[in-house]
Description:
12 strands; 14 helices; alpha+beta; five-stranded antiparallel beta sheet
Amino acid sequence: MPLAIRHFRCLARGNLFRLPFFFIVLVAAMSVACHSVQGDDGNERSPNGPISDNAVESHDVLKARVRPLTADELSKLAVLWRDRLKMKVEEVSALQALSPQEARPAGSDLKKLLQQQAVLVDRLRVVLAEWERKGGDPKEYRLYVSAVSDVGVDVSTVSAAMTVVQEWLFSPQGGLHWIGNILRFLLILFVSWMLAKFLSRITERAICRVKGISSLLRTFLVNVIRQATILLGVAVSLSALEIDTSPLLALIGGSAFVVGMALQGTLSNFAQGLVILAYRPFDVGDVVDAGGVHGIVDSMNILSTTIRTFDNKKMIVPNGKIGSDTITNATASSTRRVDLTFGIGYEDDVDKAQSILEKIIESHPLILKTPVPVIRLNELADSSVNYVVRPWAKTSDYWTVYWDITAAVKREFDRSGVSIPFPQQDVHLYQDSK
């Protein structure tokens, strides 16, 4: 006992992975113990030994053998299994019809007969399911199976009720069988969940080591692997409950065309989302103009991209609209050129204005020395003489430089007496001499 306590304390002091591992081992052991009702040779077994009916094949073997048969062959096979079940039901009914005072035939065991009857019911259902899948009509057979499976038992006393429960619990298709199936179902779900977390974590670490990969693509791949693993685990766990998933898969495949036609826009968004993830025109945190929306990329999924505008509005843009339009990424490069235009009057000294602009650009700390800023008299416009000023700055400093230079030019022009003209027109009036 102290050894067990020390072992439990060791598990409690361990990391988070040890407890799920201990749980998996415990559930697996319980599942194996509960499924000891099946022998290594594949024949169904009761707690007291194998059922004495060598003509009864195991569930999986019979399921494999009826798969290549035609509907006509399966109809004949259904008759044979129904007759075999009928004979077993007659034996059970004859034994149940005896009163407690009547002597029972030698070697008769009601519990064993009920177990054999349950096996025959299961095998007949296998044949009927395959027959129905190939176009047969097993309705009459199913009604018979339902009728003979509903065995009337006196449960008016506690001992009779316990007998019924015990017979169901230890029958080949009864309690222990389904308890084992449920344990396997839960075990597979738990393992698939743990495996999904493990694989997604490994994938994320591996992708982080790849240079140049976007965070959008990293998030997408991690989510796909996690969800695909869980989905696969659910499919396998359903088979542990003896649920045939092939009709479901066939239904999904048959409805794929209809769903595709109904979801053309969604599929277009899906395809464009894959293209965006592959070519990486932008990443999370980039300032973009995409799909008619200007702002910062907040997140992206396979169908849409979330862009947060500069006035803090959350815009969800379909990937199809982004992929079919021009994408402008303002933060794709580390530096940007700041384009400004300043006009002076025609009466002002152009050399003086040039000197003021050069002095402002040279004194600003955020303007880069390389590439060299451009300051040129560019245009003789209708109302002003225009200079273009094109310094370079880091992308993060773009708007700071833009606003600082604009304010500094206004102050220096006012201080130096250089005018900034507004649009104007000269109107000439001619007086008619007549």
